[in-house]
Amino acid sequence: xxxxxxxxxxxxxxxxxxxxxxxxxxxxxxxxxxxxxxxxxxxxxxxxxxxxxxxxxxxxxxxxxxxxxxxxxxxxxxxxxxxxxxxxxxxxxxxxxxxxxxxxxxxxxxxxxxxxxxxxxxxxxxxxxxxxxxxxxxxxxxxxxxxxxxxxxxxxxxxxxxxxxxxxxxxxxxxxxxxxxxxxxxxxxxxxxxxxxxxxxxxxxxxxxxxxxxxxxxxxxxxxxxxxxxxxxxxxxxxxxxxxxxxxxxxxxxxxxxxxxxxxxxxxxxxxxxxxxxxxxxxxxxxxxxxxxxxxxxxxxxxxxxxxxxxxxxxxxxxxxxxxxx
Length: 326
Ligand code: ADE
Ligand code: ZN
Hints:
By secondary structure, the chain is of the alpha/beta class. The protein has helices at residues 2-9, 25-34, 44-50, 56-66, 73-90, 101-105, 111-129, 145-154, 180-188, 203-211, 228-237, 245-250, 262-268, 279-282, 286-296, 301-313, 319-325, and strands at 12-18, 92-99, 132-140, 162-168, 192-197, 217-220, 241-243, 272-274.
């Protein structure tokens, strides 16, 4: 309908996107064939049927397995290039893209393989249509802090290409405080900070991310609603929440899109934004996430406008670059 056409045509920003979560089944199958790897799927249909999740962990198991087809520089180039083409398609003029180095280094694939692949695609998109994007290096919270510290150290030759550090993977049992030291080290290196919190985990994890990790943004954060003091804090501080509607329903954080609280968070005055998370696994890129809330929530044009405006303001782009769009 009309609202959808209007949103699709607006210049938008993506702030919560895992590049490994943009691996489409056709690229996965092609890379498995290229590297002669056995997949437990006979065809694309079977891959898509496997994307039926109970919770965050059941998704993560399939997501880490899928990433195992990524082996050489060109694979990472293809992965990034395919995602950046969807940015052009969706009118995503600026994207802050997360990657999980440990998913690859644990398999013996180093920064010298994936970083050149990512950078080549990003430079090409910048040259061909002026795509703006930057990288967020995300630590896997189910691994130790020592492993995150080693990852930060291994990233040293590429620090100029990395804007921020993040924290993702299984939330429950892995509170933000576990990573206090490595986030402090990242801050001292001049890196910005984000962390997944309050997706499956309780509001206390959002407090932990704010206090122990000194984050600029909270990824997800939807469970903040359970703590009125936290909500008051977030209204006052304007820490952005990078909310991912399709992800939250696919992973059963909310039973149905009609129950999603993003509109409530926005109306309370929190700095909420709309994002895609893992588009290949959750059924859609950024426009699809906007379409899902248009279809299922009583959202009006001015609220959509606010969400889009928030995503520019919540981004790490320079103030000068923001002015160009706002
Ligand atoms: N890694 C990729 N997507 C994630 C999510 N939604 N939550 C935690 N870790 C993730
Ligand atoms: Zn995420």
